[in-house]
Structures are given as C-alpha cells and as structure tokens.
Amino acid sequence: MNKVLKQRYEDIRNRVDSLNADCNLIVVSKGQTIEDIQTLYNCGARSFGESYFDDWEKKVGKLPDDIDWHFIGPMQSRKAKKHKSLLAKSGLIQSVDRSSLLPILDTLGTPVSNLVQVNLWGETQKGGKPANELLSFLEEIKNFENIKCLGLMAIPPYSDDREVTAGHFSQVRELYSSLKEEYSFSELSIGMSSDFEDAIRSGATMVRVGSAIFGGRA
Amino acid sequence: MNQERHIILASGSPRRLELMQRIGFLPRVVKSDIPEARNRGEAPQAYTERLAFEKAQAVLKAHTSGSEKWILSADTIVVIDEDVLEKPIDVADAKRMLKLMSGRTHDVITSFCWQHRTNGRSEVVSVIASVEMIPFDEKMIDAYIATGESMDKAGSYGIQAVGATLVRRVIGSYFCVMGLPVCEVVESLKGLGGLSSYPFSTQG
Q1: What is the pLDDT of residue A216?
Q2: Whole-prediction pTM value?
Q3: Which of A107, B4, B72, B144 makes a 20 to 30 Å CA pair with B88?
C-alpha cells in the first residue's frame, strides 16, 4: 500500500511540476489515516488539506510540526470559535466566505492567511461568495489587521466534460486577474483530482488533490 | 432483564434499528417529523448535528410514556465537492447523485444524539468516513436504481446490499456509512453514564 501511495504521489507531483513547478500541491488528507499522511510526508509532501475540525484535531499532534495545514472545507463560525487554537496552526484557511468568521480569525493570537472562496455559478447548496458580494467582502477583510487575504479559492460545478470545467476555471481566473493588483493577490486555488492539470493551465497557483493520490480515480 | 437495553430510537431507518438490535439493545422506534431542510450557508456537519439534536428533542417533548431512559437519533448525509446529497426526491435525482459519485470519493457524515428523558443529559457526536466508488456507466446506474435500493437513502445508495458493489474502499467507519457508527454510539452512552455494564450479560 505504501509503495502504491508513494508512486501515486510522485506521479501527481511530477504532473504538477511539468506544468508549473511553482504550483503548490495540497494533498487533501481529510478522512485519511495518520500512517498514510506520514508516508506522504516522508515522500516530501508538506501541504495537507483538512475539512473537518474533529478529524483534523486528531491528527495534528501526531504528525510533524512543520506540516503546512490548509483548511479547505465549509466553516461555520460556531465550530471555528471552538477550534481557535487549531486554526492558529493553519498555514492557509482557504474557505472563508462569511463575515461572521472574520472576528474569530482576527483573534487567533497569530496573524492568519486566507483565501476567499467564491461561487460564481449560483450553486446555493455549496459555500462561497457570489461575485456581486465579493468586493465588499474583500474591503471588509481589510479592516482586520491579523487577516491577510492572499487570493481566491473555488470549487466549480462538477462536469466530466473537460471543456466545461476549463470554462469554469477561466471564469475564476479572470476574476482573480482583475483583482490581483489592487488586493496584492498571489494565490489562486482551483482544481482537484479529476481536473488539476486543466486548472494549472488556467493559472492555478495551488491545486487540492486527494482521491487521485489516496485511491479512487487514479 | 437489563433495563439499559431498552431505548427509544428516534429514527425510521430499518438499518439503524437492525444495527442497534445486533449489538444487544431493544429499541422502541418513535419517529419524529422534523423537516429535513438545510439552512442557507449551513455547513454539512453543522446540518447533520442540528437535525440529530432536533429529532431527539422532538421525541423527548412528544412522548412521556414508556420506561426507557434514553433517546437515540441520527442523521446521515453524503458530501461531495461541498454538495450535500440527501435522500433522492425521485429517480432523476438518484441518477444525478450516482453520476456525481461515479469513480470518485465522497464523504459520509453521520451525526447522532443521545438524549436522556429526564435529567437533561445529552451529547451530539459526528463520525465521518470517506468512500471510494468504482466508475459506473449510465446502464449500471439504471440497473442499480431498478433494484429499489436508492430511494430512501442519503446519496441514493446503500452499502449493505447491492450498493456494496459500487464501493471500492471505505476509509473510516463502515457503520457510519450504513447510518449509525455503533462503536461511537456505545462509547458516547458509556461516557454519559447510561451503560453500567456492556456488552449486556443477558445477550445471546
């Protein structure tokens, strides 16, 4: 198993590097075992993405301190408030999409970096700020001195048609480019297991890959 | 007869009833009629936790008869790409969900709630598992839906019967995927002081 895992990780890492060696590969480790995460760490992986506080909390103390933890799941303020010390360990909180989170993230006792999750496709069942609310939200974030917004994250609607997906990525990319200078953006997080290569071609600076490494769609 | 074996199960799911019976409990089923509707922007886990809690509260308020001390309720959803998949509303909806899950990994969240009927003690616990599915084509989806397994299940599949053949691997609790993570359910009740000795000695 370890050998397969290692091979899969190295394959994905190489595919990412061949398109853009600066692109950060975030290994989506939510739900995965400490042993498997440690195996990937030993292969050189440093950035891991988690979506559930309880699951994340169980892992943090048992894995190396220099792991760059990203929070990538839907975040409710009630849970965030309960897990402030855990959030303080996060290198990047990717899924910020509501005002109620800001006072919590501002008072973790340490400055925190975040991305704003955008939702440009009207999928109200998913998280993310719609385009028409994005600017005022970015302005609002400026009021919090301990929160530094580095860019945008998105989870476009799933499609097995590559062109449709690439179109979604371009939309986010255009929005990102239009704001990049004014807000000093440096990170665009789009693309997952099934479409990370298209995302990199569309300008992703980080991709979030889980099942292509741990199993599922290889 | 050990009185602790008797509980109220606030769930209409035959699988949850069977699981609790298998581990020695003698549940009495009392269904609640809590509307299953996610609030706008409500995170998936916050949603299942709220529903589990509300179901237990509804049964607590509605039923005063019976000598059972504890109420157990639960709620299960499937999450993929932040999209929450609940029970399908019709065949087309089931088809949509299965298509979305084909060849990919999704999360199953089951939250349960233990609620004491008189002393106010309660606990809500969530368990999450990741499920890898094999790729399946439209023909297979139609054939699977024709088995009738889809309609009353979150995510439109059931892991305990034909749906098992759609699943390559479960990472985490199998019983969470089935709808009730029995290990954590018992652990929680022990922690709440509701089990003085378990496994029950009268079992078998």
Answers
A1: 52
A2: 0.89
A3: B72
- Domains annotated for chain A, with CATH where assigned, are 2-214 (3.20.20.10)
Comparing alpha-carbon positions, the chain B residue that sits nearest to A75 is: B43
User: How far is it, in rounded angstroms, from Cα B27 to Cα B33?
Assistant: 18
Where in the sequence numbering do the catalytic residues of B fall? Answer: 75
Mean pLDDT of A39-55: 95
Nearest CA in chain B to A157: B81
B172 contact residues in A (CB cutoff 8 A)? 31
Residue A157 burial (C-beta neighbours within 10 Å; 0-12, 13-18, 19+): middle
User: Of B51, B72, B62, B65, nearest to B115 (Cα)?
Assistant: B72
Query: Which residue bears the tokens 């995170």?
Result: B43
Cβ of B104 within 8 Å of Cβ of A193? The answer is yes
Domains in chain B, please, with CATH?
3-191 (3.90.950.10)
- Percent share of chain B, pLDDT over 70: 97
B110-134 pLDDT, tens per residue? 999 999 999 999 999 999 999 999 9
Sequence-separated contacts (24+) of B50-57 with Cβ below 8 Å:
B51/B75, B51/B111, B52/B111, B52/B112, B52/B113, B52/B124, B53/B113, B53/B122, B53/B124, B55/B10, B55/B11, B55/B113, B56/B10, B56/B32, B56/B113, B56/B114, B56/B115, B56/B122, B57/B115
A141-154 confidence digits (pLDDT tens): 999 999 999 999 99
Does the CA dihedral A86-A90-A96-A102 come out positive or negative? Answer: positive
- The answer to whether B68 contacts chain A (CB < 8 Å) is no
Q: Does B105 touch chain A (CB under 8 A)?
A: yes
Confidence at residue A213, expressed as pLDDT on a 0 to 100 scale: 93
As to burial, measured by CB atoms within 10 angstroms (0-12 exposed, 13-18 middle, 19+ buried), residue A145 is exposed
Distance in Å, alpha carbon of A181 to nearest chain B alpha carbon: 29
